[in-house]
Write a structure and sequence with these properties.
Blueprint (H helix, E strand, L loop, with lengths): L2 H10 L5 E5 L2 E6 L2 E9 L4 E8 L2 E8 L13 H18 L2 E2 L14 E2 L2 E2 L3 E4 H22 L2 H8 L10 H15 L9 E12 L8 E8 L6 H18 L18 H16 L5 E5 L7 H15 L3 E4 L1 H7 E3 L6 E3 L12 E8 L11 H11 L4 E3 L2 H6 L2 H6 L5 H6 L10 H8 L5 E3 L6 H8 L4 E4 L9 E2 L3 H7 L9 E4 L8 E5 L8 E18 L6 E14 L12 E4 L1 E4 L1
Parallel strand pairs: 9-26, 12-13, 12-16, 16-17
Antiparallel strand pairs: 1-2, 2-3, 3-4, 4-5, 6-7, 8-22, 10-11, 10-23, 14-15, 15-16, 18-21, 19-20, 19-21, 22-23, 23-24, 24-25
This protein binds adenosine-5'-diphosphate and magnesium ion.
Family: Belongs to the eukaryotic GSH synthase family.
Protein name: Glutathione synthetase
GO cellular component, one term: cytosol
């Protein structure tokens, strides 16, 4: 019997080898042994196994922990080739795809490449998955409350007191918002729509055998890969249905593949905003990046909006909008006159909701005029997804600020609010946080602590979209070069200790003959949710809306799929 096999069998208790568990004694039946008896001490995570073959029992000792789950299961070369072929053809035929790399995308695409994907779903502890889903409602409400707390956002993100003082991008956005607050008409649309994704990793520090769920970040703008993650989960379901994954693991059962309906879930959020706007003939505006390759992830939302809600979508870049957008000075209605042949009628159409799949990075605003276009959209009656304050609420600095004493209570247990939450709810949220602090906290202390704990830390600026963070041994030299003034724009965060020894077969986007690469991996779970809020009653209408798993090679710090560091994955639940 293979030692490591047994290790994982004991942990998971589902293998055919296990026939009975009585107190601390496992009764196993397996050839070539007639009878095998195992004594385990689960509390200490140590087991001693007595293999009784004939008359001579032979003791074998090992360590037991969840980390020893063998993943991916073992398959042969030819099975691997089959899975790769089935996965990539499924991806190409079901729209789990990107546009190919091109300097300028053609006006109408003629080809696609499959998205980066994993052949096996990745194991996520069932309890942690349930917890993440249940937490989403609380997080939806929390971020809705933050976005409507003007004083808080001015203090933390503003240009006079907060991060906006030293971070130009944050400052620009905040200034646009402030200008609108200060004008005579003020903010004319009280409602905001959030399309959120809360990202987590499983935390399992060495020596511990109880995994927990820790939040990486909370996204309030352009949260992507909702609909492609649904396709990715369906692809894994298909691989199971067609091959049974060759009987390689008892975990691979349909019951362990949770359903994922992100497309309809997210479209429902946009439809709720559209309905609240109250003009059925209006359209939803998708603000997109020029030469976007991840268009299909966005198109699936459009199809759902049209098919299930009869809502039309117009796609425009900031540059398109410079020519096409108009806000009526009296009614504040936003109208778009499309320049291209995107839609049949060349007349101006009213916009109910502005959904940003661009605008989260300074690269999307190459000139000051681009910030003015953002301001123009925000000045209108159209519901913004997200509004500028909701985008600011998603700042890493806000995530850190929430961990300060009393701040979470201010948003979730304040008697002035429409509803308050229980201590248990607050504890559940708090239990997902890693330690964080600002580099400018307590004089030199923030930086000194960062130097001291560098090996266990990531530093993050106020940016989204991957590739901006500083990790571990890059931290001390980075701190040497960081002007003191800029410290307040950075937070330090303890690294989440993800389970070791898990692997997968990863297939790069359009990998061609390269095929699947087996490597040790780290998975990141994202839970989608939406929230519509800001009305006079103070209520937050919200829902959880499906999930995403991105998986990256263990040696990569970053995890963005679009940035090319990771693949789309899905979940096999394990106990
Ligand atoms: P971005 O807004 O650029 O996506 P994130 O906070 O999500 O920034 O960080 C990018 C990536 O860095 C994550 O996807 C994750 O892989 C890694 N990462 C971030 N914070 C942590 C952490 N505390 N522990 C471990 N990995 C982290
Ligand atoms: Mg991220």
């Amino acid at each position: 019997m293979d030692h490591e096999d047994l290790d994982s069998d004991l942990v998971l208790g589902t293998d055919t080898l296990l026939t009975q568990l009585v107190d601390d004694t496992l009764i196993l039946t397996s050839p070539p042994f007639l009878y095998v008896q195992t004594f385990v001490n689960t509390s200490r995570g140590v087991f001693t196994l007595f293999v009784k073959s004939g008359n001579l029992p032979t003791p074998v000792t090992g360590t037991m922990s969840r980390q020893s789950l063998q993943w991916p299961p073992e398959i042969s070369e030819s099975e691997l080739d089959t899975l790769t072929l089935l996965a990539t053809t499924y991806a190409l035929s079901h729209g789990l795809v990107y546009l190919p790399v091109a300097k300028v995308q053609p006006p109408a695409p003629t080809s696609t490449i499959h998205a980066p994907l994993s052949l096996f779903p990745s194991p996520i502890p069932r309890k942690q998955f349930e917890k993440a889903k249940n937490l989403q409602s609380l997080y939806n409400v929390l971020y809705a409350r933050i976005a409507t707390d003007v004083d808080f956002l001015d203090r933390v993100m503003g240009e006079e007191q907060g991060v906006g003082q030293v971070d130009e991008f944050t400052g620009q956005l905040w200034r646009q918002w402030k200008r609108l607050r200060d004008r005579e008409a003020g903010i004319v649309q009280p409602l905001h729509l959030g399309m959120f994704r809360s990202d987590y990793m499983v935390h399992l520090p060495e020596g511990s055998d109880s995994p927990s769920l820790k939040q990486v970040e909370f996204n309030t703008i352009s949260s992507s890969f909702g609909t492609l993650s649904q396709q990715s989960a369906q692809m894994h379901g298909y691989l199971h249905a067609s091959t049974g994954y060759f009987g390689s693991s008892s975990h691979l059962t349909q019951e362990n593949f949770p359903p994922n309906t992100t497309a309809s879930g997210l479209a429902e959020g946009l439809a709720a905003a559209h309905k609240a706007y109250g003009v059925p003939t209006a359209k939803i505006l998708f603000v997109v990046q020029p030469n976007e390759r991840n268009v299909f992830d966005q198109r699936f939302l459009e199809y759902d909006l049209l098919e299930k809600h009869s809502i039309h979508v117009i796609r425009q870049t900031f540059d398109d909008l410079a020519k096409s957008a108009h806000v009526d000075p009296q009614t504040h209605v936003l109208k778009i006159t499309p320049q291209s042949k995107q839609i049949a009628e060349p007349v101006a159409v009213e916009i109910s909701t502005v959904y940003f799949r661009a605008g989260y990075t300074p690269n999307d605003y190459p000139t000051p005029a681009h910030y003015d276009i953002r301001g123009l959209l925000e000045s209108s009656r159209a519901i913004q997804c997200p509004s500028i304050p909701l985008q600011l609420a998603g700042g890493k600095k806000v995530q850190e600020e929430l961990t300060q004493p009393g701040v979470l209570e201010q948003f979730m247990q304040n008697p002035k609010l429409a509803t308050t939450h229980s201590r248990e709810d607050l504890e559940a949220i708090r239990s997902t946080w890693m330690e964080m602090w600002s580099l400018d906290s307590d004089g030199e202390n923030g930086v000194d602590r960062a130097r001291e704990h560098a090996d266990n830390l990531v530093l993050k600026p106020q940016r989204e979209g991957g590739g901006n963070n500083v990790y571990k041994d890059a931290i001390p030299p980075f701190l040497d070069s960081l002007p003191e003034k800029e410290r307040s724009a950075w937070i330090a965060m303890r690294l989440i200790a993800t389970p070791k020894g898990l692997g997968n077969y990863l297939v790069r986007a359009g990998a061609g003959t390269e095929g699947a690469v087996k490597t040790n991996v780290i998975s990141e779970l994202g839970i989608f949710g939406w929230a519509l809020f800001g009305g006079e009653d103070g209520k937050v209408k919200e829902k959880e809306a499906g999930w995403l798993v991105r998986t990256k090679g263990e040696d990569s710090n970053e995890g963005g799929v679009a940035a090319g560091f990771s693949v789309l994955d899905s979940i096999v639940l394990v106990d």
